[in-house]
Every structure is written in C-alpha cells, then in structure tokens.
What does this fold into?
Amino acid sequence: MDNIELAQTTANTSIDETALIEFDDGFIWSVEVLGSQGKRADDISIEEITWLKRLRQGLDKTRRNIVNQLKAIVGQGPLNQVAVDEIEAALLQADVGVEATDYIIHSLQQKLKEKALPPDEAITYLKKILRDMLDKPLKESGSFSLERGNLNIWLITGVNGAGKTTTIGKLARLAQKSGYNCLIGAADTFRAAAVEQVKIWGERSGVEVVANPSKNVDPASVVFDAINAAKSRGIELLLVDTAGRLQNKKNLMDELSKVRRTISKKAPDAKVESLLVLDATLGQNGLRQAEVFSQAAKLSGVVLTKLDGTARGGVALAVVQQLSLPIRFIGAGEGIDDLRPFSSYEFVEALLGG
Ligand SMILES: Nc1nc2c(ncn2[C@@H]2O[C@H](COP(=O)(O)OP(=O)(O)OP(=O)(O)O)[C@@H](O)[C@H]2O)c(=O)[nH]1
Ligand SMILES: [Mg+2]
It folds into this structure.
C-alpha cells in the first residue's frame, strides 16, 4: 500500500472465508504480485487478494487491447515506423492520451535503440516506464497520509455521477477499519436525494453524517458545522461530499471555491486534501472537467473510479501526464470494499501482467 497508512487489513482469515476462495489463476497471480512487493505469505489477507483479482479482472479489456499487440511488437529490436504506429494506436485506444503515448513511445524507442530486448525484457522495461510515470506526481506532491491525532479534511469533488458519494462511503469504511475517528459532511445540498444517499453510506460504514435538512442550505455552512463537530469530537478524518451539478458550471465552481475557502479559514491547521473523482469509463472526456475543478477546489489528487470492466484503464496514465496530479485511490466496483489506495506497482501489473 503506497504512501498511506490506511487499512492494513488483518491477515487472520477464518476457515469459512478460506473455503470461499478459489485457487484459480487470478489467485495465484495476486499472491505473486503481493509476494514480489515483499509481502510474506502469512501477511497476505484475503481482502488484498480479492481486491487484486478484481482489479486485474477490471482491466481485462484494456489489457487484451494493448498488451497482446505490444508483446508482439516490442520484442523485435528498434521500433520501425509501422511498429510505432501500431503501439500508438493501441495506447490511444486504451485512452492513454496523446501526451502520455508520445512519452511512452519515446522512452521505449530510446531503450531499444541501445539494444534489442527480448519480448519479456521489453515488457519489463515498459512496466518500469509506466510505474515511473504514475509515481512522478506522487514524488512531487509529497507523501499522502492521514495524520493521527490531527484533523484531516478530504474534500471530494467531481461531476455528477462520477462516484463521489460512493467513494466517500468506501473511504469512510477504510478509515474506520484502520481505527481513525471519522465524520462525513453532507455538502451536496443541491440534489434532493443526496443527503439521504450519503447517510446510507454513513450507516454502512458506521460513520456519522453532519447534514442540514432545511431547504436551500449553503453547502459552506454545512462544512462550517461539520468542522465544528469534527473539532469538538476529536475527529481525525472529515470527508466532505459535494454537489456534481448545479444550475450551471459557474455556480458549481463558485460554490466549490467558497467551500474550499471555508475549510482554509475555519480549519487552518487541518491537513486538507482536495480530491477529484474521475469516472474511468469516460476516458479522455473526463479529463477536460479536471481543469475547471483544479482552480476552484485547489486539487491535490485524483480518485479514479469504475475501473471495473472498462477498456479505458489507460486513462490513469493520461491523468498523471496531463494533469500532473497523483492518483490517490482507485475504485473498481460498487461495493463498500471496492476501493484501495493506489499502487503503481499493482496497477501496472494488472494492466500489463498476467
Ligand atoms: N462499477 C462501478 N460503479 C461505481 C463505482 N463507483 C461508483 N459507482 C456507481 O456510479 C454511480 C454514481 O455514483 P455516486 O457515488 O452517486 O456519484 P456522485 O459523484 O456522488 O454523483 P452525484 O451525487 O449525482 O454528483 C452509482 O451507481 C455507483 O454505484 C465503481 O468503482 N465501479
Ligand atoms: Mg453524490
């Protein structure tokens, strides 16, 4: 688990759980991926295996699209124009984006000019290129952690339907399981059912929700109340849900800026993360929204959702290359446990390996 001290789940697995596990291909692959990160067999939890299997399965379509083509191409020495065109097409099809694709091809080309690599080594080298790309913004932005004993505020933003509220439920669960005191602020006051929805996630994760049931409430005032509640209760993580749609984009951005300012003013000592939730199935289209949010919410990272079953998993590379924002978490399913801190190693293995 990269850069975050969250949810080191227990390795103690009950007999019943073990019985449910299928020792299939995905299981063996997951154990290998965990093992190659230095995890000992008796430290590996069923949750970790289940998650990796899910991630690998989710990236199945993306992998099938690009990897088979790449494997056939990269093992043949320096790339000729036909090979470059083919790799380019495969990467673009996986929504890696023009910028990241150019960078990948250039790096690969440099290496292959030095010496011809057999296919396996070429793929290993490609994996390293991708990992380095994914980790670059992580290194620049410093570590991402939840400070124990301090107030951390995570502002969750993104367009409607991206998965903000679901992500809040999943994050609350992770934090709760890791022993952090957690609270949710229901600052999506625009959509009628939004507060009810976030309350349901609060119940599922066992985390309280601060909301204001009156009509036309200013979301900044909900955040104000939530910060007060967090301070008086010694909360360590306050998760703030926000609206994905208002009357128009300008209103949405004004509202977000106001919420962001309220957080800075009211909780100057808090460690604030402003996370943009991006729906991976939108591929490149999703990225365009990011620039607007970036200014209003002072983004510090991305949560990439819906990686289950999309052929556009390559968008993760576009995110880091085009937005220069680190990916903090990835979601691969609608269930409460279907979200984990982002690990470039696991992601690249799921994308290109197996
Ligand atoms: N398959 C899949 N579905 C997801 C994932 N994350 C969220 N969803 C689904 O996406 C839909 C929208 O999720 P919400 O959490 O309501 O999105 P939101 O951003 O809060 O939307 P608004 O409140 O309308 O702005 C729901 O049906 C979720 O179940 C994921 O990782 N995988
Ligand atoms: Mg929502």
